[in-house]
Amino acid sequence: MEEGDINLIEACKRSKPSAQREMYVRFSPMMFAVALRYSSGRADAEDILQEVWIKVFRHLESFSEHNSFEGWLRRIVVNTAITHYRRNQKHAFQLDVDEVHATPADLEAFKELDFTREELATAIAELPKGYGMVFNMYVIEGYKHKEIAERLGIDLNTSKSQLSRARKYLQGILINMSSRAEKSK
Amino acid sequence: MNAEEFDQYVRTQFETEAAEPPAELENIIFASLAAETRKRRTFIGVTACIGLAAFAAAVRLNDTAPAQPEVLDTAPVEVLAPAAINAEESLAPSVNVVDSFVLEQREVVNRSESVSVIPFEEVQKAPEMMEEVESGALPNLGYLDTNVQPEIQQLKREKWVLPATVKVND
């Protein structure tokens, strides 16, 4: 970790307002992007971000400088998003999902495709909520299935099967997106 | 593209992800943070006040507590006059005896006032009256009200009414 970061963290630990503002400006875009991936909309992501910053400044004392600060922040965002997801899941109806799996021929064609981050983010947001959570946690954050199962309160095999389905589902969405783009040309 | 390649492709895309949060969110977050800090400071202040008050009370108790052992230390001073204590102890029962004697006398007087005087002639007749009682010759109920008496008799008659189904065989 850079010396500037260490000084910034130390100043925030002393509850220095200017340092807190600086930290917010510096790390909020990354945190908000993560929150957006896990939430069901911008409003939900804003709630998550607000909750996360309160947690960060409250528990900053527990952060050790030997670890990655960005990784620590990212983990808090993911944990808070999971809490939101589980809270909302109690009130949500379980909808049947029309499986949009990519065929082997589609996957061959998929080799040549190239998507921007925004397109990928849009496609991930279209995934059924459970699939999206597992996919984000495993592929982007790098969690193991055991940890995902524990965090989401699901079976280990459920986590594995949901990831496999999420991949195929996502590839199907991306192929549909590209074919729609081709037609519009 | 296999699963691992796909995962790697997606992961690479999101390595430097960023999205600007709405500008007003900053103020909302810091306002709620300030409110939380204020709450925490108030709590700490109240806790400190309670702690100080408890400490002050403990100190005050410690200041007053040594007075009791001092009394114990001065106890031998009272022992210096054993004769007086003995005199008090010896006097105390005698005073009580006198008091109780006076009380008994008063009670006797009160009892004698409450007892009615029986003439000597009646007292002489007492053994005869006792014999009458033992022999069962109780006085009649002539003193009863004449209105009440028939009712009692009537009640007694009703009790002795025989059932209608009784048949007398010759």
What does this structure look like?
The complex is a heterodimer of chains A (185) and B (170). Chain A has helices at residues 3-13, 17-38, 42-58, 69-89, 104-110, 117-125, 129-140, 145-152, 156-184. Chain A has 185 residues and is mostly helical. Chain A folds into 2 domains: 3-89, Rna Polymerase Sigma Factor, Chain: A; 104-183, Arc Repressor Mutant, subunit A (Orthogonal Bundle). In chain A, helix 1 (3-13) crosses helix 2 (17-38), helix 2 packs across helix 3 (42-58) and helix 5 crosses helix 9 (156-184). Chain A is elongated. Chain A starts with a helix and ends with a helix. The model of chain A has no long low-confidence stretch (mean pLDDT 87). Chain B has 170 residues and is an all-alpha fold. Helices cover 74% and strands 0% of the residues of chain B. Chains A and B meet through helix 2, helix 3, helix 6, helix 7 and helix 9 of A and helix 1 and helix 2 of B.
Q: What gross morphology of chain A would you assign? A: elongated
* N- and C-termini, Cα separation of chain A: 48 Å
Report Rg of chain A: 19 Å
What CATH architecture of the largest domain in chain A would you give?
A: Orthogonal Bundle
Provide the low-confidence segments of chain A as ranges: none
What would CATH call the homologous superfamily of the largest domain in chain A? RNA polymerase sigma factor, region 2, helix turn helix motif
What proportion of the residues of chain A is helical, as a percent range? Answer: over 70%
Query: Which segments of chain B are poorly predicted (pLDDT under 50) over 5 or more consecutive residues?
Result: none
Report on the biggest sheet of chain B.
none
Can you write the helix and strand succession of chain A as a string?
HHHHHHHHH
Question: What's the total count of β strands of chain B?
Answer: 0
Q: Which H/E pattern describes the elements of chain B?
A: HHHHHHH
Structure annotation, total helices of chain A: 9
CATH topology of the largest domain in chain A: Rna Polymerase Sigma Factor, Chain: A
Q: Tell me the number of structural domains of chain A.
A: 2
